[in-house]
Design goal:
InterPro entries: TPR-like_helical_dom_sf. The protein is built from 6 helices and 2 strands; from the N terminus they run ββαααααα. It has 134 residues and is of the alpha+beta class. It has a single domain, classed as Tetratricopeptide repeat domain (Serine Threonine Protein Phosphatase 5, Tetratricopeptide repeat), CATH 1.25.40. The protein has a two-stranded antiparallel sheet.
Length: 134
């Protein structure tokens, strides 16, 4: 859990500015991820992306947030952003099957056939490892 203090400025109609200070106590990145997934499933991709960005700002090591952010950005055709989010997920968990599958999908969308094939092969191997554990 992280406490975040947000400061924003708003202009009044008379030209004066006011400072608004608000505190979001106990921001739980997983709660934000779950909300973002719901938003995404309802077609609210921009809102979902905003919530996921808040999640990764509150916890830069939140694997679920980075994976979800990669998928939302892929759906929005932000391939550069999707790749960056996916790469961050893979830095956190290099053998994460979900992130490897996302990486493959992103690389296919970017037209990187070689990279996509490599990521798919790595995902396949990770999948087999998971099956052998069970």
């Amino acid at each position: 859990m992280v406490s975040v203090i947000m400061v924003s400025f708003s202009s009044c109609s008379d030209g004066a500015s006011t400072e608004i200070l608000s505190t979001m106590e106990n921001v739980n990145p997983i709660d934000l991820v779950e909300e973002a997934i719901l938003d995404f499933s309802l077609g609210e991709e921009e809102i979902a992306e905003d919530k996921l960005m808040k999640a990764v700002k509150s916890d830069s090591e939140c694997l679920d947030a980075w994976r979800a952010l990669a998928e939302v950005r892929l759906a929005r055709q932000d391939l550069t952003g999707a790749l960056a989010a996916c790469e961050k997920a893979l830095v956190i968990a290099p053998e994460d099957l979900t992130a490897k599958v996302s990486l493959s999908r992103i690389l296919v969308a970017k037209g990187d056939k070689e990279g996509a094939e490599k990521a798919t092969a790595e995902a396949r191997i990770l999948g087999w490892k998971e099956e052998l554990k069970d």
